[in-house]
Amino acid sequence: MDISSIHPLMPKNTQSLQELALKISSSSGELAGKLHPKSRQAVEDLLRIVNSYYSNLIEGNSTHPSDIERATLDDYDADTAIRELQLESKAHIRCQSEISELLRQKPNLHVASPDFLCWVHKTFYDQLPNSMRYVTHSETDEGIEVVGGEIRQRGVKVGAHVAPPENLVPDLLQIFENHYNGRVYGSNKIIAAAAAHHRLMWIHPFLDGNGRVARLFTDAYFKTIPLTGYGMWNVSRGLARDRDKYRAMLSVADQKRQGDLDGRGYLSQKRLDEFCEYFLTICVDQIEYMSGLLNLDGLLKRVESYVILRNSQLIPNPLPESYQSLKLEAAPIIKEVILHGELSRGDAAAFSGLKRTGRDILKQLIDEKILVSDMPKGPVRFGLPVSMATWIFPELYPNKNLNL
Fold first, then answer.
1. Bridge partner list, 161
2. Of 359, 338, 339, which is closest to residue 347 (Cα–Cα)?
3. Would 42 disulfide with which of 33, 119, 288, 382, CB 3.0-4.6 Å?
4. pTM of the full predicted structure?
5. At residue 397, what are phi and psi to the nearest 5 degrees?
6. 201: containing domain
C-alpha cells in the first residue's frame, strides 16, 4: 500500500448524484426560510444536543438529550457511568460550538486540512473525562492513552478494516486536503462531502475518535460550502437511525477495486459511488423530516397542543418535578415570539390577553427556558428546552420515559 491507495477521491459524476446534490441545496435553503432567524437559533441550539446524542449513539454510547441538557447546565448525575457519558456529550457540544465560532471568524478556513482535523480531535479529547481517553490494545489488553490532536503512531484494525500504515497517514492527509479543499466546486462540493466523509474514516488518522471527528468535519464542510440552512438539520440523526447500515456502507466502500471495470484507483469506484448515494439520500431524508416539523402552521398547532396538555397536566415526565401547570394564555405568547423572533417583555406578556397574570405567565415561560433572554430585563426569544422539544418535535429523538 502507498499514498495512491486513497484513490478514487470522488464518485463518478452521475445524474443521480447531481440531482441529490441540487435537491439538498434547494431544500436546505427553503428550510432556512421557514422560521425567523431568532427562532431558528433555538432550533440550531437544540440540534447541537440532538447531534451529540446521535453521534455518540453511533459509537455505542447512549446519553438521552434530557441528560445532555442537564450537563450543559452543570447538572450531573450521581451515577458515575451516566455522569461520564454526560461529560462526553458536553464535550461534543462544546466542540461543535467552538467549530461554529472559528468558522464565523474564518469563513474561508480549510476544514480538510490536517491542522483543522487535529484541532477538532484535540478540542474534543481535551474535554473528556480521563477514563475515556484510553483504548485497549486488542492483543495485550494494554491501556493506550489517546492524546488529543495527535496523529496515530501505530497500526490499527477496526472490524474488517485495516487502516493504512501509520507512516502513510501524514501524506494521505495532505492528499485529502489538496483535493477536498482545492479541487471541488459548485454542486460537486456537496457530493464531495459524502466522499470525504468516507475517505477520512478510511485513513483513520487518530488512535480513537475518528468517527466523531469525521462527523464534526462533515458538519464544518457543509457550512463552508456554504450550504444555507445547515444547522437546522444534521446528518448524524439519519446515520444513527440505522447505524448497522451506516457501518456496513462504510465497510463496503473500503473494498479494493474489483477488476478493470471498477475504476482506475486502488479502492473500488463502484462502492464509493454507492456510499455517496446512500449518504446524500440520508441528507435529503433529514431535510425533508425537519421541513415537515418546521412547517409553521403545524409547528404553532403543536405548541398550542403542548400548552393544552400542560394545562391539563396530561404530560408525564420527563418534565422536571418543579414544573407547574401552564395557563392556556401561554400559547399566544409563545406563538407570537416564534413568529416575530423577539419581543419586549411587555409586548410578550400583553399577548396573553391578561393584565396582571400575563407577567406571571411570562416569568414561568422564562424560568422553564421556553423563552430566553440575553439580558435580565431584555427582549425574549424562543428557547426550546429538551422537555418541550419532545412534544413539539415528535420522533426527533426518543422520549426517555416512554421507552421509545
1. 158
2. 359
3. 382
4. 0.92
5. -155, 165
6. 37-237
